[in-house]
Amino acid sequence: MVGKWVAERAASLIDDSRGLAATEFAIIAPLMLVMLLGTIEVSSGVAVNRKVTLVARTLSDLTSQSKTVGDADIADFFAAAYGIMWPYPSTPVQATISELYIDPTSSEARVQWSKGTTPREVGTPVNIPSGLIGKDSSDKTLPGQYLIFSEVSYLYQPIVGYVMAKTGVTLSDTAYTRPRQSTCVLYGSDKDCPKLGG
């Protein structure tokens, strides 16, 4: 009799599924929440990273289309480029635009002028991809080569900070463009393309 009662109770317990949905929800909800927040943070980070690349390209592109630039022109270039960051804040943007001269004897790129958040010192060397250095059929560096070089970095801080660190992730990119209207882009009162070689 006791055995039969225990068997009946065990069978009714197995058939009872009243709390099953609540148990499944308690197990799955935290996992789904982490996935949702992670997707939001990563998607937003990817969007900001793309905008950082566009800012770098826009800065070098706008500068390369000029024959001469002054402080007001460069301020306009930065303002236009920073507008790309919308709807994300542009205050974390750190950007610098420089003109580089490639010395034909050493194939080394050196800064001619530089403006922005952390301008490079005039005459300092900059490592550039070797594919950007024009060479003749005998592998000799061609003279008179200039590049407009933009550097952009952005401290991306996630909205929620649940999956990624709340301190943020630094996203950065660079862009190189050859001057389009002349051999170099003159800065300020310069009359001729400077050649700060090694």
Task: Please provide a brief summary of the model.
This protein has helices at residues 2-15, 20-64, 71-82, and strands at 68-69, 93-102, 109-116, 125-126, 145-156, 169-177, 186-187. The chain has 198 residues and is α+β, with helices and mostly antiparallel strands.
Describe this structure in words.
With 198 residues, the protein is α+β, with helices and mostly antiparallel strands. It has one domain (2-187). 36% of the residues lie in helices and 23% in strands. A 5-stranded antiparallel sheet has the order 4-3-2-5-6. 24% of the residues are buried.
Layout of helices and strands, plus pairs?
Elements: H1 2-15, H2 20-64, E1 68-69, H3 71-82, E2 93-102, E3 109-116, E4 125-126, E5 145-156, E6 169-177, E7 186-187
Parallel strand pairs: 1-7
Antiparallel strand pairs: 2-3, 2-5, 3-4, 5-6
Main beta-sheet strand count, sense and barrel state: 5 strands, antiparallel
Oligomer: single chain
Radius of gyration computed on alpha carbons: 29 Å
Count of distinct structural domains: 1
Strand/helix succession:
HHEHEEEEEE
Low-confidence stretches: none
What's the mean pLDDT score? Answer: 81
| Percent helix | 25-40%
| Helix/strand/pairing category | alpha+beta
Give a count of the beta strands, DSSP E runs of length 2 or more.
7
Please give the count of helices: 3
Strand sequence of the main sheet, in spatial order? 4-3-2-5-6
Q: What percent of residues are in strands?
A: 15-25%
Distance between the termini: 102 Å
Overall outline: elongated
